[in-house]
DNA sequence: GTTAATAGTTAACTAAGTTAATCATTTTTT
DNA sequence: AAAAAATGATTAACTTAGTTAACTATTAAC
């Protein structure tokens, strides 16, 4: 490892540690970070299916099924059976689910907020670009 | 949110999602990522205590105790009782533990490797600097 | 010297993941 | 067109990593 790589490794280690240690804190109303992430994701996508969620979140279909069941029971999501293929149940955020996302500040929202207080606009853009490049490279493997 | 913030949020969301989905994959010899992270952390620190690990990893002392027990039983760590304070048990990596870290590539190692294939030296340094700034800001809250 | 605090562990429990099996539906094969 | 295979979602049984509360031992404080 070069010096530059070592420094990156060091910072990235701390960064990952911080993410893992803090992203699950501050859950409110009994809604965990996982629940929140699912609702936010579905809200941003507009609609999606359990199958896709499992793929995108990298966990098994039954695991998604269980979390989604909780979110359905708590009226944060609702299902819509597809007319073309009756096996498929689309998931959408309810008004209550949308409200949750819009009124609460996610971990990512906090990072974004803090990033833009401590970085200039140019720096934030650079960081976005560089992080995006690394991510694209990782995903392409 | 400004455009720049929205773009950062978007990339960071993907980035976090990727970390969570992938960091626990590829565990080898029945050693999970958590085990690996603990051994790596202790190895890099030289020696540490359960108390400190709990604080640094942001989980409870009993949770650390249970993981450490496994690592002791599997000869990846060993304990050394402090002479000054007999309540304290220092944890260190065994040769087997060190070998594990040195011969296997952690998730962070992979990210570092891929980051430096897709970024120039200057870009990697910039990314390290910017990520470090954001992290320091988050930690200071 | 007794009381209070601290490092670590054990016990009992919870939550979120896993695989295997099942149901309903759609697609493919013959 | 009927039978067989595949697919999306769920349920059941299980595992694992975390939690809090209670305990042991040691040290610090009054």
TrEMBL record, chains A, B:
<protein>
    <recommendedName>
        <fullName>HTH marR-type domain-containing protein</fullName>
    </recommendedName>
</protein>
<dbReference type="InterPro" id="IPR036390">
    <property type="entry name" value="WH_DNA-bd_sf"/>
</dbReference>
<dbReference type="InterPro" id="IPR036388">
    <property type="entry name" value="WH-like_DNA-bd_sf"/>
</dbReference>
<dbReference type="InterPro" id="IPR000835">
    <property type="entry name" value="HTH_MarR-typ"/>
</dbReference>
<keyword id="KW-0805">Transcription regulation</keyword>
<keyword id="KW-0804">Transcription</keyword>
<dbReference type="InterPro" id="IPR023187">
    <property type="entry name" value="Tscrpt_reg_MarR-type_CS"/>
</dbReference>
<keyword id="KW-0238">DNA-binding</keyword>
<feature type="domain" description="HTH marR-type">
    <location>
        <begin position="1"/>
        <end position="136"/>
    </location>
</feature>
<dbReference type="InterPro" id="IPR039422">
    <property type="entry name" value="MarR/SlyA-like"/>
</dbReference>
<dbReference type="Pfam" id="PF01047">
    <property type="entry name" value="MarR"/>
</dbReference>
